[in-house]
Amino acid sequence: MTDTFQSITPRPAPVRTEGFVPWVRRNLFADWKSGATTVLLVALAVYLLPGLGQWGLLQAVFAPDAQACQGARGSGACWGVIAEKWRVIIFGRYPFEQQWRPEIATVLMVAALMASCVRWFWKPWLALMWVAVLAIFFGLMGGGVLGLEPVRTDLWGGLPLTVMLATLSIFLAFPLAVGVALGRRSQLPAIRTVCIVYIELIRGVPLISVLFMASFMFPLFMPQGMTIDVLVRVLVGITLFAAAYMAEIVRGGLQAIPKGQLEAADTLGLSYWQTQRKIVLPQALAMVVPSMMNNFISIFKDTSLVTIVSLYELTGALSLALNSDVEWRPFKIEAYLFITAIYFAFCFAMSRYSLWVEKQVGVAKTR
C-alpha cells in the first residue's frame, strides 16, 4: 500500500507586532472610527501648521526689541518678550542681584527629585539627602546664613516657589493621606468619624477657599503677637487639601484587597500594623499608582492659585512681569506659551514616570 502525498495548505506568515507600521496600525487605524479621527487630525494639521509656522518662526521676532515686536504684531510672534522678561517670570520679585541663589536651589531640588526616581538611590541615606537638600534650599532662598543677605518669603516667586510648594506638599500629604485612609476604615468610631469629617469637609470646598482661610482667617485665631509665615500657612493649606483627595484614592486601593488575605494574616499571628505594612499597603498603593500620579500632577498645577495670597509663583510672576510694563503687555500669548512649556515638561515627566512604575509593578506581579 502506497501512501499518497497530500500537500498542506501554507499558513500565513506571522504578523509583526513591533515596529513603526504595527504601532501606527494599532494606535491610529485600529478601526474605522480611529482611522477617521486620524485622517481628520492630519488634515487639520496640514491646514493649520503652515500658518503657525509663519507666525511662530518665519515672521517672529526673537530679539528683545519692543518696537520690532509692535511692527510684527498680528503677523508674527514676539519671542523677544521671553528674552526680556524671563528673569522676572522664572524668579518673580526675588532681588535681581541675588537670583543666582534661587537658580542653584531649584536645580538642586529638581536634581534630588530626579535622583529619587532612580531605583539605585532607594537607600536609607536618601532621607538624609533630602534633609540636606531642603536645608540648603531654604538656606539659599531665605539667606541670613553664611553671609547671605536675608530675603523675605513674600519676595520668593516664580519657578522655585512652584517646585518647592509642589514637592513639599506631595511629600507631606502622602503619609497623612495613608494615615487618614486607614483611619477611615478603622473599627474605632472616634477615629473613623474624625477622618470622615476631615475628608468630607476639605473635599467640599475649593482649594482657593482653603488658601484664603489659611492666609487671612487663620491668623485671627492666633494669640496676639504670634504670627506664622504666610508661606508656611499656604503650604499647610495645600498639604491638607491634597491629603484629603489622596486619602480617598488610597482607600479605594485598600478596599480592593481581598478579605481572605487579611484573614490569612490573622491566622499567621501578624499584628495590625504588620499586616498593613507587609501585605495590605504594598498591594493597595501599587493598584492606585495612576490615580495618585494624577493627584500629584494636579497639586503641581494647583500651586498657581497661591497668587490670591500675594505669593507670585510661575503664573503669578508672569502677570507681575507683563502687567507692570505697557510695552510688553500685548504679548501675553507668547509668555503664556513659555510657561505652558515649563508646566508640560514637568507634568509629562511625571506621567512617563508613572507609566514606568506601573510597568515595574506589572513585572513584579507576573513573577
In short:
This protein has 15 helices and no strands. The chain is mainly α and 367 residues long. The longest helix has 35 residues, at 332-366.
Q: What does it look like?
A:
This protein is mainly alpha-helical and 367 residues long. It has one domain (95-366): MetI-like fold (Orthogonal Bundle), CATH 1.10.3720. It has helices at 20-27, 32-58, 66-71, 80-91, 100-116, 125-142, 158-184, 189-203, 207-217, 230-255, 259-267, 272-287, 289-302, 314-323, 332-366. Helix 4 (80-91) packs across helix 7 (158-184), helix 5 (100-116) packs antiparallel against helix 6 and helix 5 (100-116) packs parallel to helix 7 (158-184). The two termini are 54 Å apart. The model has no long low-confidence stretch (mean pLDDT 88).
Order of helices and strands: HHHHHHHHHHHHHHH
The fraction of residues in strands falls at under 5%
Outline type: flat
What is the fourth-level CATH superfamily?
MetI-like
| Mean residue pLDDT | 88
CATH topology: MetI-like fold
What is the makeup of the main sheet?
A: none
What's the N-to-C terminus distance?
A: 54 Å
Structural class: mainly alpha
Counting structural domains, the number is 1
Under the CATH scheme, the architecture is: Orthogonal Bundle
Number-wise, the strands total: 0
Number of helices: 15
Q: Which ranges are low-confidence, i.e. pLDDT below 50, for 5 or more consecutive residues?
A: none
Radius of gyration: 27 Å
In which range does the helix fraction lie?
55-70%
Q: Specify the CATH class.
A: Mainly Alpha
